[in-house]
Write a structure and sequence with these properties.
Blueprint: H1 15-31, E1 38-44, E2 51-57, E3 67-74, E4 80-81, H2 88-96, E5 99-106, E6 109-110, H3 112-126, E7 133-136, H4 138-147, H5 149-155, E8 171-172, E9 179-180, E10 194-196, E11 200-209, E12 213-219, E13 224-227, E14 232-233, E15 236-239, E16 242-252, E17 256-258, E18 261-265, E19 268-271, E20 276-279, H6 290-303, E21 312-319, H7 325-334, E22 341-346, H8 351-366, H9 377-385, H10 392-399, H11 404-411, E23 431-436, H12 443-458, E24 463-469, H13 471-474, H14 477-485, E25 488-493, H15 497-506, H16 513-520, H17 527-539, H18 546-558, H19 561-571, H20 577-588, H21 600-603, H22 606-611, E26 615-617, E27 623-625, H23 628-637, H24 641-644, H25 655-664, H26 674-686, H27 690-701, H28 707-713, H29 715-732, H30 739-748, H31 755-774, H32 778-797, H33 803-806, H34 810-825, H35 829-845, H36 849-861, H37 868-886, H38 892-908, H39 913-924, H40 928-945, H41 948-956, H42 967-984, H43 987-1000, H44 1006-1020, E28 1027-1030, E29 1040-1043
Parallel strand pairs: 3-5, 4-6, 5-7, 10-20, 21-24, 21-25, 22-23, 23-24, 28-29
Antiparallel strand pairs: 1-2, 2-3, 8-11, 9-11, 11-16, 12-15, 12-18, 13-16, 14-15, 17-20, 18-19, 26-27
Helix pairs in contact: 2-9, 8-11, 8-12, 12-14, 25-27, 26-29, 27-29, 28-29, 29-30, 29-31, 30-31, 31-32, 31-34, 32-34, 34-35, 34-36, 35-36, 36-37, 37-38, 38-39, 38-40, 39-40, 40-41, 40-42, 41-42, 42-43, 43-44
Length: about 1050
Amino acid sequence: MPNEKFVDWEKINNGHQGFERLANEFVAKEIGFDVKWRATQLTRDGNKDGIAILYCYLPLAGTTEEQIWMEAKYSLTQQNLSRYKLDSTIVSAIIEGNVKEIIFITNIEIELSVEQKIKQALMNALRYNENNVAFFSRWTLERWLLLHPEIYQRYFPDAPQIPASFFQDLYCTDKISFHQKSYSIQYFTEPLQHLYTDQVYNSFLRIFSPADQTARITSLNAGLKIKNNHWVTDNRIRLKQGINTIELDVECVLPAAVSGPVIRIGDLELFCNRPVEISRKTAQPTVSIASQENIMAAILSVVSGTVPVKGFVFQEIRGAGANGKTRMIEIIASKGLKNKDTIVAAFTDDQLMNSRLLLDVVLSVLFYYLDLESIDVAYLHELKKRGLFISSYLEDLVGAREQPEKLHRLLSKFEAADHILIPPLARLNDKLILLDDLHKLDDSNRLFVNHLLVEIGKSQLTGLAVVAARESYFESAEYLFFRKNNISRAHQLELTIDDVLDSFKKNQLELPELTARVLFSRQKLNCLLLIDLIRQLQDRSEPFDDAGLILFFREFLNGDTYLQSVLNRFAKTDADQDFRAVVNAVYLSSGGVLPSALKDHHKKTVPQLIHFELIRYSPDGRIIPYHDFYTKIFRERYQNRFLECFSDNGYLFTEIEETKYRLMCLFEDEKVSIQHIVGQLRQLSEMHRFYPVIYILEPVFQQENRSAFRDRLGAATYYELYFMYARAIGHTSKHYAGNDEIKQIIQETAFLTDTDIRWIRIKALAEMMNTSFEYLLFDDISRYSVLLDDLFNVLIMGGEFEQEALSAHPSYILADEIRILKAMSTDDFTAGDQLYSNLVDRCLRHGLWDKSGILKIRFARTLYHADLPRAKQLIQEGIAERLKFTNDVDDKWVIIGNFEIAFLMAISEGLPLKNVLNAHERLRTDLFSDYRRAMNALAAIYLIKGDLAAALNIFTQEVDITRAPNPRFRAIRLQLSAAYEYLKGNTRQALDHLDQQSRLFVPLGQSYQDIAAHNIGVVNAKERANHITIYFGGTRKEDIFYIDARLW
């Protein structure tokens, strides 16, 4: 019987030591390795009694070539080993390419599908055949012991008890289950409950045969057909003496119920492990796309090896939405050869899920044969101990696996370089990497994936990567960075009028060519629309005449015909609560739902919803919406469904997702707590967690008509959230500064008298004063300052605010801070210093250590040209005061202050550059605008050192960024570019940059102009010293080019 236990392992003599001797004897007698194994390691699984013993055999003494590894795993508590993590020593040896064979022996049962998947992946990794990887689990060992009672009695105190069924001709320990043919990074697939016609599935069997023989294999169910493969030929299956591990390819040919006996091998009947239904998929019209067929042929010729390639090859599939890019990725994946590790990732609108998916891509490239969930930091440390290169960055990523926001931030720190993620000497199997819907990635994830592809291209890996996305992705700065470093072949996927005509013809429909060219030349179809158009024409009982056909097309293309057909599909789920629960969970999540997360009574609805063409499976096994267009329709038309996802029949989302969806529920549920939502957003904003703020608020403030939200939220709350959103954009976006949003708030609140709104307007005015300083718009500072003072006076005169409280208000302090910085920037040093002293005293009088700390760090920058010792002291005091207030080393101004100190110490005292680089990296997370500004400081250091290549690399990193630089940033960048050209001997270009810089300097004081004029004289001088340094005050030497560090 399949679940029958023949041996009581608790009785084995000497526990794991007895099992060790048993494993050695089994290998000697059954595999023929009668050699002296060297035990290299013994590990205990946690605090349980699971013991793993690792052995190594080196056929040639003293060499590391052609190692054979055996792992013996013994446990009394574990019954089934459904996932397995190979010992780190074996993994290191695999990656370094000197393992010939692996033998795994255990007294625990292993799920056969898992065993086969691991075995196939290991065969790929070792580049050998199936005889080089062997798994021997509980049932195999027990049967061997009972067949050899003399061996059994040497290891156990009792006599073996052998059941009668044990002696039948063929014996199988498994029931039949069906699995998706897996090609994705989710390598371990669960048994399926529903099958579809015209699909091929995997089934796995372990069969004992008393002798080598060929047996007849037949299907006992009319809906199933056994296909030929490595084990089966024309309904005959080859069995060898002993245990046979078999992978069957089973095709579903007819709708049927599958239960009871399913397959017969010889006289042995195999039963289904659970009832399964086979359904016929909804018939779809045949759509022909010539470009799709051409692209498929070109890519598959590389995948199959028909076209020989060297190194790593990159291919692009470009095209508009709903034209079949995803379908092509799935077809390419299904054609992947067994000697290639196929990695598929389909990205979603959930950026945190995308970050996790990108980490899985990296781990799959390195450890394709491991269950990804089993890889943790401790395991990576073990690999490092074995001599395998593991970067600290990879350890950080794995350590943040269960902290989505931290992982997302860490990914943004990745920059392509040699061997950051891929070991330099890795001998990994050929890879087929398929990345779909890359246009859904945000800046950080998009930057990571392109840097990753660059590193893969530079590594010793071989294989093919296919990336599919809409055109916007391939035009992005992040992808342009990839194209600068790699050669990639672009394929354009498009649906042409000729394709439309051909598709009509193949579906026995008439379409005059002239009519098609007139109708479809102005408004392009996509595949979704074309399929629905053909269906509607096929459903008509009578054909159209020419005039009627043209009218129908116009209504279809311009009206709501297609929209209504999609809504009709959703309407089928209205009456059934189980249907509604699954649809809600899938369509309201950002990244789909895992089947295992569904409740049992909801799982039954999945086949029907697939039949309705409302959901589908993603390549990595998630249940996702049928198409993005459907998601858009659902969220626009079924906002009331947001409420249901929090009911007893719904599914839980992350806290951030829940906040986002509750915000979207405001129109439907009066009980939704607005203050709770606002409280969470305030907390996120105060903690500088700007990415979640954007994620939650973007659906509100990216739509054109926001009046409904303003009415529901109330004007005060609406503008508070709008201000949070604008600040988050300013801090994190590579493309927008948030200024337009803040100006909009100021404009819209100009005549509103609500006190709470006035406070928001005050914050916005102070923020624009700060922005105007960065943009060198000193007249605007004065204008916003007048508006701010007038507003404070109104509040004081109205009795809503006291004069003493005014002096301690954050916005008032920020405004005074900007007035100080403006005075110092226009060389009004006496007034600036006096205003500074007054403001510091005021902050300390009110106990505002946090504000005092910020002020000291910002004021210190204005002193770099005149009093460096005082500047250093003020920064150190500022850091200390921020820490006193926040007790947080990750505080924004602590990080900024530490960078300033590291920079100054590197220049003035020659301390290591790595301190500056490390401090700079800390700025990247959530402080992108400061990170970008500080890049100029790094460029200055490289120019001073004469490292022009490193300085140029800093300049070229700007291609990743489309956000327009402010004038202050442009001024220092022009000064640095002039220094670069000066060192290269390009006088004309250097003078041009200095001339542009001088024009930007017009609002600034004479001290800035003097340095610029001095540099022009240096560049024009006949005698060149090619000496560059930072100007820290004193008399300027005529042969030195000075950089003004105040600008950043």
